[in-house]
Structures are given as structure tokens and as C-alpha cells.
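Pair request: fold both.
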Amino acid sequence: MSAANQKKSKGRVLVAMSGGVDSSVAAALLVEQGYEVIGATMQVWDYSSCDITEGSGTCCSSLDVDDARSVADKLNIPFYVLNCEAKFKTSVIDPFIKAYLNAQTPLPCVNCNTYLKFDHLIKKMKELDCDYLSTGHYAQIVVDEKGRSQIKTSTDDWKDQTYFLFTIDPEIVPKLLFPIGHLKKPQVREIAEAQGLVVAKKKDSTGICFVGSKGYDQFIKENVSAAELATKKGLIKRFPSGEVMANHEGIHLYTIGQGKGLGMTYHEKLFVIQIDGSDNTVWVGEEKYLLKNEVDIIETRWLSEIEDGAEYNVKIRYQHQGSPAQIFKTDRGFKLKFKEAQRAVTPGQAAVLYKNQQLVGGGWITLN
């Protein structure tokens, strides 16, 4: 059998290439391992319409597309650019804005994974007659004793991205490849250097890719009418007494746990405890009121069966270390009861469950 045929024998794989070092190394490793690799970049945002510096912590801008194409040329693999701007707006940007205006703190990376990377690209994978879809996520695919493919946390605890993957359809997990999940970030850059990839020293994408350094508040101001924003003004009140402390310019300017930029001065440190979207009240109070033992979640997605009353390790935000909690079915969804009280439980974020490093699933945090 020829070398070319040996390479094809592992199957054809579509690699989502953002133009960053992680997805570039993912593609390089798959070529090295003998897969027939096809690269694809999603053009999701018109960076000419904003002040974000392309290629500097961005994702999928025109310069990022050029970097991805350069890597594809270096690896001698086919490369496609997919215009996803319309779908990105309806599936990611619009819900992002709506969440802030409804007193929530959104998590746009999950929607991007749900509706673009692991939906739109899965369809493209099938169109191109590929056997697998690969990304540069820091996650791992493992096969359990029953032969079922499961998602497991990355070797790199700091970079692990499984928190953003809880909405993945379990049926597509066997079709996913995460080539860098067993590596730490410095190792990934070393591989990029060794392979001579132009992205070896490129900055990581940081923050929300379509917002940039201007901040989400300015982004919302530019994308929502002044008349609508005016309807989001209200009062800042002391929790739990109800004492009026000040006026505020919009609930979208606040998030649970916030302790700076409250628009008022006071003789003791205060934090945002709760945001009431029904009357635009921002409740502030002592830090002790941020602690909660119970969390309600809705719109849950499970990659494997859960047991009512069982204990799981639960993350309530991306950089949360996780904490043990029991899960119970409710009329609306599920309730999580933590062994230790958790700080700043935030509606709009996700609670994601793990069992022995395996991603079990999760749901969206909501108010009681």
C-alpha cells in the first residue's frame, strides 16, 4: 500500500481552522497521523465595521482567514472559507444583546459551538463526505467500557474548554476529534514552531471575539437604539432593606458579583446581588448575600444519563474550579444543591456537570 493510501486509510476529516495556533496544530497533527485533512474557516464577523484590530486576539477575521490559509498551504491540504456572518448574528450576537437587556450575563461561546462549530460545520463535514470533524478545543474524546465515545477534560487544566461543550449532540461525539486535548499550551506552541507554522507566536484570542477592547457596554450601545436603552434605566437599591441608593443608566451595565463601577459611592464595599429585569432594579449589598447553596437550571442537555439525587462536580462559570453538588429533577428543569455555598451564581451562565473528569452535560442558570 502506498504512503498516500495509508494516510487516507484513517479517514477524511474536516478541521475548523480559526487562524489561531491551536486549530492550526490540530490540523498539522492530523496530517502527521495519516488522516486526509480538509481545512475550513468560518467568516463570522465583518471586522471592517468595528475598531477591533484584526489578528490581535480576534477569531475568524480576514487576517485570521489569511493565517489559516497560510497554514493550510504549508500542510498542503484543501481549504475553504465559509461565510457564516448571517447565522452568527442570529445565533450568537442577537441572543448576546438580548440577554444583557433581560438582566442576564450571556455566554456567547456556547451558542457559537452549538449553532456554528457543531452544527453548521457538521453539515459541511457531511457535504464533503468527511468521516470526522476536528477543532482546536482543549478537550479529549475517550471510549468507555461499553464502547461509547465520551468527552473528557483536557490535560491542560487552565485551558480546558469542555465547559463550553455541554450542548453537543451525543450522537456526533464519535465523529469528533480533539487532537491537542492531551497537550498543554506550551507544547502546542512548540509543535507549531517545529512545523514552521506562521501562527506559532500568534496571540491567543481573548474575551468576546466580536466585542474587542471597546467593551460590551459600548458594543450594546452601538447596536441598540437609544430609545430601547432608555427603557432599561432604573434604581439601585440596598439588599435586602430596599433603601434607594442611586439611579442607574441601564441594567445591561451590571452583572452579579460586580463590585466596581456601580455608579455610586458608599462607606462600605457593596456588590451587585441581584438584577430584576421586571422593574430594572439593581440590588446591591454585602458580599455574604452573594453566597447560594442552591442553583436552578433549565434547557438542560445531557451527553450521558444522570441519576436523580446523585452527586457531580459542577462548574458555574468557565474559570470556576467546580464544586460537589447533588442534582434533583424539578417541574422546570433541575435543582443543584451544593455542599458548600457558591459565590455570584449568575443567570445566563451555565452550570456544567462532570463525573470523574467526564463531561456529563449541563443547563442554563436561572433565578428561583
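--- second member of the pair ---
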Amino acid sequence: MKERQDDNPAPPQEVRDRIWELAEKIDIGMFTTWDGERQHSRPLSARVRRDEHAIYFLVDVAGEKNAQIERFPAASCAWADNANYKYVLISGQAALSNDRAKITELWTKADEAWWEDDSDPTIRLLKLTPEQGELWDSPGKAVALVKMIAAAVTGGAPQMGDNAKVEL
């Protein structure tokens, strides 16, 4: 994705493609719910399935996020690749299920840190159906550093890369 100025924004499809790509590549995202008074975020491993227009997470049957999602299904997940100055936010509708076939399909060896195997009855499937996405995409650490130094010398603001919002 090329760096662009505000008067020459990235085409929406290019932004959508990049959002899906980074969400999958970064993996762990901060999943945020609402309890009616405040937001709550927690790190979750994302199983990004663009062809299904879905992002899945394996979660435990216990936990306050489940009740929050049942009452307030609007949720978001943010991914950060700090080393490369790349950030993605996807918001949409979340839903919990006990879809055992999908849980088995999504199961990885890393999930054994939380459950013995995919047949554990306490595993639930959390699905985020994306509605909107936002992208902050820099050309990389070295370029960002040069731009920050140049901005400090000139007194201007650095042009750090793309920022775009799209409907997903």
C-alpha cells in the first residue's frame, strides 16, 4: 500500500484488503466490549476468515465478556504491530455460540494452553461480524523515524502514512 496524502486517499477496496491482511498477520488483538457503563478490553487470538466475512475467537464459557456481548453485541477488536507502525481496528456485531464443528475446525495446538482439547465443553465460539474498519499504515520503522526527524527539524507534522476508514 503506497503512502498517500489526504487529497489522494487509498481506494476503499485497497484499504479493505489491507485491513483484513493485517488483522490476520498480527493475530492477537484487543477485543473490546461494553457493559453499559464502561468498555472492557482483553487480548484474544483471532481466527480471521475473510471468505466468511467473520473473525472468530475461542473463549471460555465463563467470563464477563459473554454477558456483555449478550446484552450489548456491538464490539471491536484492535491489532497493533508496533515494530512496523501498523494498526487496525475492526468493529461490528459479536455473538457467542457452541458450534462444536467450528470450534474443532479452528482449534490449534496453542489452544492447549487454555483447554485440554477441542472437545472441552467449556469452549465457546465468539464471532465478530465486521461492519467498519480503520487502518493506520506506515511504510515502516526506518521511514517513520526519518519523517519524525525531518518534521522536528522543519517544525512541521510528520506524514506517517495512511489512515482510512471503510465499511466492511
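Observation on the second member. Strands lie at 28-34, 39-45, 47-49, 54-60, 74-81, 86-97, 123-137, 162-167.
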